[in-house]
Design goal:
Belongs to the CNEP1R1 family. The chain is mostly helical and 127 residues long. It has helices at residues 2-54, 64-70, 72-86, 90-94, 96-108, and strands at 113-115, 121-123. It has five helices and two strands. A hairpin with a 5-residue loop joins strand 1 (113-115) and strand 2 (121-123).
Length: 127
């Protein structure tokens, strides 16, 4: 009787952990989509500004900082990319769900469990 109670508690704990892990990874992925859009827009803006900066015929005759001052879109977007990567750590925000899943996989292998990229638990057979 006591063995069945322990088994039921273990199963309910595993189900709760599975739901919670799914929830965490789902919300991290939703946030990552927003950050991917921000990164894509800032990257395209930087490429757009760089194109006009590099095709400017006066680039050869003007000093670098003066040329950059003439192309404020490129300077702004490059500064934005720097800010996103250094201060906001956008790379970690984009791949956050993968980081959580890989760390959980590492811990779960000790208990003959695994999880996929969505956070679903996978029970592995014991050897």
């Amino acid at each position: 009787m006591e063995d069945n109670v322990n088994r039921d508690v273990s199963v309910s704990d595993m189900v709760y952990f599975d739901r919670r892990l799914n929830e965490i990874i789902y919300h991290k992925r939703r946030k990552a989509i927003r950050w991917r859009v921000v990164l894509m827009v800032s990257s395209l803006l930087t490429a757009y500004g760089a194109w006009f900066w590099m095709t400017d015929p006066t680039i050869r005759s003007t000093p670098v900082f003066e040329s950059l001052g003439n192309h404020s879109i490129f300077c702004f977007s490059l500064s934005l990319l720097f800010f996103l990567f250094v201060f906001l750590r956008i790379h970690q925000r984009i791949v956050g769900s993968s980081i959580v899943a890989s760390r959980c996989r590492r811990i779960l292998t000790q208990y003959c469990l695994d999880c996929n990229d969505e956070g679903k638990l996978i029970i592995q057979p014991t050897a």
